[in-house]
Structures are given as C-alpha cells and as structure tokens.
Specification:
Order of helices and strands of chain A: HEEHEHHEHEEE
Helix content of chain A: 40-55%
Radius of gyration of chain A: 25 Å
Strand content of chain B: 35-45%
Structural class of chain A: alpha/beta
CATH topology of chain A: D-Maltodextrin-Binding Protein, domain 2
Shape of chain B: globular
Number of domains of chain A: 1
Distance between the termini of chain B: 66 Å
Distance between the termini of chain A: 51 Å
Strand content of chain A: 15-25%
Number of strands of chain A: 7
CATH topology of chain B: Porin
CATH superfamily of chain A: Periplasmic binding protein-like II
Oligomer: heterodimer
Largest interface: A-B, 58 and 59 residues
Strand order of the largest sheet of chain B: 1-3-4-7-8-9-10-11-12-13-14-15-16-17-18-19
Number of strands of chain B: 19
CATH class of chain A: Alpha Beta
Helix content of chain B: 10-25%
Largest sheet of chain B: 16 strands, antiparallel, barrel
Chain lengths: 179, 449
C-alpha cells in the first residue's frame, strides 16, 4: 500500500513537472523572430538603374554568368555579383542558369581567367543587402535577389520576356530556412 | 597494507533495513525538491523574455554607438585622404565585401588605385614519376613546371596577364638534348597586356600562345587543367621538341562576330613567329629580335553555338617565312581545324593539322600532317581517358627531320584527390618509323595553389 502511494506520488510529480515545463516553453515559441515564408519565391535578376538593359534571354544570362560576355551593349564592363556558396539563391543560379555545380563553376572561372577569356571572376557577397548595395553602386553590376528583397534601388530585368512577378517566370528559389 | 574484511551478516541485515527506511522516508522529500527545482526552472524560463529584452536593448544601444563611431572614422578618413577609386573587380576567393562599405562607381575608370596591390597570383605545379623502354632512358622522378600565373586589372579596360615558369632541363630541340639535366631555368611563357574595348574587339600585345587549333590556347602551362599528363605531341612546346610555333611575340586582336546563336569568334595575330630550328637555338621563340623583317600572321575563326552546349568548331591558317641557315627561305603554312565538345563531366577533343613547308626556288613542297583525338568522362572523382595521336613528317623535311612518324594510343586515369590536386596514371604506346616502339608509364601529381 505505501509502495502504491509512493508510485502514485511519483507519477503525479512527473506529470506536474512536464506541465510546468510545457508552460515555460510557450513564451519561447511565441518569440520567433520573423514569420516563416513557406512557399517558393521568384529570383529576380537585378542590374543598376542606369543600365539600359530591360530583357535578357536565358542563353544571354548563361553567357553573362559564365563570364563569356564581359561588356554590356553600352560598353560598360560587366561585374558579376554572386552570393556566397551555400546560399539557396546561388544554388538556383548555378543549377538553372549555369547548369553546373559549385566545383565546376569555380573551375570554369579559374580556367577562363587562366586562358584570358574571362576578364574577372565574380564578386562574392554575403547577404541580399550587400548585393543590393553593390548593384546600386556599380553601374555595370549584375546580380540576383529574391523578389521579397527587391526595392527601388535596383532594377529587375525580364528573363525571356517575363518579369519576376509574371506567371511562367523561370527562376524560383526555395523559402528561407528559419534559424 | 591491510584491506578490511567482509562485514558480518547481521550487520549487513541491519544496514539493509535502515536503507529501506531511508528510501521510503527520504524519497518523497527528494521528489518535492525535484518538483520545486522544476517549477523554479520554469519560472526562470518564463522570466527569460524580460531578461532577453533588456540584453537586446543593450546590444542595440551598443550597435548604435559603434555605427556612430564608424561614421565618425569614415568622415575623418575622407578628410585626411583624397578619394581613390578601387577597381570594381574581385576574385571569387576574395572575402565578402562589407555591406556597410559603399562600393566604388567606375565613373573614372582609368584611374589607378595606388594604395592597393594590383597583382593576383595563382600557382600551378606537377611532379611526375615516369619510365619507358627506350635505351638510355632511366626511370625518374621529375619536377615539372612550376608556374606562377599572375594577373592584374590595370584599369577597367586594361588587364595584365603572365605566366612565369620555372622548369628543369634538359631542353630537347631538333632531336638533340641540350642543357644540363638537373638545372632549373626561368621562362616568361606569357606576358600580355590586353585592352578590352568590347566583346567584339579585344587587343593583346606581348608574348602569348598562338591561336593555332584549340589545345594551344585552351591549356597553357598547367598540367592540372589538362586531363592527361601532358600535351599532345602536335602541341608540344618548342623547347621540348614541338613542331608548332606555340608561342609568339606580337599583337593579337580577338572578339565576337555578330552571328546570333551561332556564336562566331575571330582571332587575328601578327608576330615574330618562331626561329627556323636550323640552326638550333637555345630559345626558339623570338622574344627580342626577329631574324627577319617578315612577320608571321595567323587568322582563326571558331563557333560556339548555343544549341550544343560545350561545342566549339573552328579552323585557323598561319603563315610565316622561315630563314634557316645554309638553306633558301622556306614558306611555312599551317592549317588547323578542330571540333571539340567540352563539358564539366565529358570531353571529346579532335584536331587535325597540316604543316606545309615550301622552300623558295625548289618545286617540292613538304607536308606534315597530324591529328589527335581525346576522349574522357568523369565518374565521381575519377576520369578515365583515351588519346590517339598521329604525326608524320618526311625524313627529308628541311625544318624538322627528327620528327618522322609517331603514332599510338594513350590510356590513363585521372583521380581528383581534392579540388586542387589531381593524380594521373598514364600509359603511352608510340610507334616510330624505323625504330622500336616506345612503351611508357607515368604517374603524376598536378596541383594548383
């Protein structure tokens, strides 16, 4: 009998402890920094506002992102801006535009610079804010941003005659993972 | 030292009873403590947001202070020094640019930022263990070329590029081994200043690789880039017994030809050409003085169509006038054609050449044909490959009588041990005219750093 009472007491204590812990966790869960974006977003190709280019075909984009085109039609040198390896935006560009993996992309630029065909390697930036600022400041720059990261400081070009807000746009990036 | 013996049974029983009593009396007490501790922990967690808010507020205040300090320092720096405009270029290996740092516009592109080092350097090297069945050849470890590849963006329109190569002897010119076996020499293999006006017109001056065929401009002095352990014999360097003017000193214009999806390109070159190999010279490339006023010309056209990714098809025509000693002048014409398919995981190279020597005043013309085909495919880190090459020079050829007939297959396996180190194992079989065939085996480590 005393054993049974002890056992009941232990079980009750455990239940009480779990209830107290779960109450303590509620505020923590409520303090998530940002709402989650759960659906895919379009990835916009961005250039400086002063760049007259409005539309690029996928083939042209590929040539630009592989360094095979080094000048815009207005003669200004193209400065390619890439985000750091591991970023989902970069992965989309490598997969859908360059059709290469990270190693092949790096080797391609290394070889291109070695042969002299590629004038400069891409500029690597860490965040969308950095990309936006760089493209805003460098007239020949071209980069990429999620539609949610766009603002009026840069211009999103159309790809194969479709803007990033249009249906049928080809470049999609998975939602940001929460950290 | 004495260890205590076992306790008597009675004493043990007494202890057991006492232990039970302790368990049943003290256990609830322990549980109460545990529950209280849990409740206290929960209370702390509930209070945590308040503490976090306070910390956050402090951190934000600290960030504000730091930002104000950065602005203050930037203002002081701008007052102290004139504004300089760094080139808007960078290598992929460069660290990410700080987002707070405003990027320079290229509004005044021709100004040089003297406060920054303009040179960028990458190195290439290889070490090979090789052996063959030729008489007098010994199985040896060999240091290959140590290549310091240097580039510099002089300005938005101008770029400098060079390859400074340290390599061991001996040289093999005109079938003769020259130089000391184990000495190292330094060669400036490429030194080019390039002006880039647009995609349609680029002009380079200096010492460069002639645009004869494909291999010569696709693979320079780095075995790491190449699938195989070495270049095809047709494109062997001049100081290694090669038959082509691989290098020249002069000017080269290149660019796109507006052709839509066809992707046509042109290359037009004029330079000193190559010394005639007769008599033998230490340096076949005429770096400083041409042996005559006549200049060598080369024109190449190639297409990279959008429809087939990695395909390049093209041809080139080279013309020079050689001035060998004790022989009349010889007109040299080299026709080359290529069709290559190069993708990250697959490679198929095909090139064919004809070297035509026409001595002045002699009705005879000497033709030396050659070709090679090379096939490879990547499987993970492994890349097996095959190459077959052929070159056939007449034994009476006035410029390179030592070449003769050489043909045969090569088989090999490249293993990419890391992104920057490749290990290759290659077997070569070379049939020669009037001599026993050569079987050779090579194990090479090629790397970039």
């Amino acid at each position: 009998m005393p054993r049974l009472a002890g056992l009941l007491f232990i079980l009750a204590s455990a239940v009480f402890s779990m209830a107290a812990l779960s109450l303590a966790l509620v505020p923590t869960l409520g303090r998530l920094p940002e709402p989650q974006i759960t659906t895919e977003q379009n990835l916009a190709i961005v250039v400086s506002l002063s760049n007259p280019v409005e539309n690029l075909s996928m083939a042209e984009l590929r040539r630009i992102f592989l360094g095979e085109r080094s000048h815009w039609p207005n003669g200004r040198r193209i400065t390619l801006v890439m985000m750091e390896p591991g970023q989902p935006e970069r992965a989309v560009v490598l997969r859908d535009i360059c059709q290469m993996n990270e190693t092949d992309f790096n080797n391609h630029f290394l070889h291109g610079v070695f042969t002299g065909e590629v004038l400069v390697s891409p500029k690597t930036l860490a965040t969308p804010v950095g990309v936006r600022k760089f493209v805003f400041n460098v007239p020949g720059a071209i980069g990429y941003l999620r539609v949610s990261d766009l603002d009026s400081s840069v211009k999103a070009v159309r790809v194969d005659e479709r803007g990033p807000e249009d249906k049928g746009y080809k470049l999609h990036v998975p939602p940001r993972s929460s950290k | 030292m004495k260890f205590p013996g076992p306790l008597p049974i009675r004493a043990m029983f007494a202890l057991k009873l006492t232990g039970r009593m302790i368990v049943w009396r003290i256990f609830p007490l322990l549980l109460i403590i545990l529950v209280n501790a849990t409740i206290l922990r929960s209370q702390q967690l509930i209070d945590a947001p308040a503490a976090d808010k306070q910390t956050l507020q402090l951190l934000l205040q600290r960030i504000d202070q730091l930002e104000a300090r950065v602005k203050q320092l930037e203002a002081a720096k701008q007052q102290a020094a004139p504004v300089s405009l760094p080139s808007a270029t960078a290598q992929s290996s460069a660290p990410p640019v700080s987002e707070a740092e405003p990027q320079a516009d290229n509004a005044v592109p021709e100004r040089m930022d003297s406060s920054k080092t303009l040179l960028r350097m990458r190195g290439f090297g290889d070490i090979t263990l090789h052996g063959d069945n030729q008489r007098h050849d010994t199985t040896s470890f060999s240091l290959g070329q140590l290549n310091l590849f240097i580039t510099s963006d002089i300005s938005e329109k101008f770029k400098f590029l060079s390859e400074i190569v340290f390599e061991g002897g001996p040289d093999n010119i005109f079938g003769e081994t020259r130089g000391e076996n184990n000495t190292f020499g330094v060669d400036v293999e490429r030194m080019v200043v390039q002006y880039s006006h647009s995609d349609f017109f680029k002009l380079a001056v200096g010492r460069y690789h002639t645009a004869i065929g494909y291999y010569n401009t696709a693979y320079h002095h780095s075995t790491w880039f190449q699938t195989t352990t070495g270049r095809p014999f047709l494109f062997q360097f001049e100081d290694r017994g090669g038959i082509l003017p691989v290098h020249t000193v002069g000017a080269s214009a290149s660019g796109l030809i507006p052709s839509g999806h066809l992707g046509l390109h042109y290359v037009a070159e004029v330079g000193n050409g190559r010394a005639s190999r007769s008599p033998i010279t230490e340096e076949p490339v005429q770096n400083v003085v041409d042996d005559q006023n006549h200049k060598a010309f080369n024109l190449a056209l190639f297409a990279r169509p959008d429809a087939v990714r990695g395909l390049q098809v093209g041809f080139s025509a080279y013309r020079d006038l050689l001035a060998p000693a004790s022989l009349p002048r010889i007109g040299e014409t080299i026709f080359a054609a290529h069709a290559v398919l190069v993708r990250p995981k697959f490679e198929w190279l095909n090139e064919i050449l004809l070297v035509r020597h026409a001595p002045n005043g002699i009705p005879r013309v000497f033709n030396t044909p050659g070709f090679y085909t090379q096939l490879s495919k990547q499987f993970g880190s492994y890349r097996p490959y095959f190459r077959y090459q052929y070159v056939n020079a007449s034994s009476t050829e006035p410029i390179f009588p030592d070449v003769g007939l050489r043909q045969g297959p090569s088989f090999g396996l490249r293993y990419d041990a890391s992104e920057t180190v490749a290990v290759k194992l290659q077997y070569d079989y070379t049939a020669l005219r009037g001599q026993p065939a050569v079987n050779a085996l090579a194990l090479q480590v090629g790397f970039t750093f």
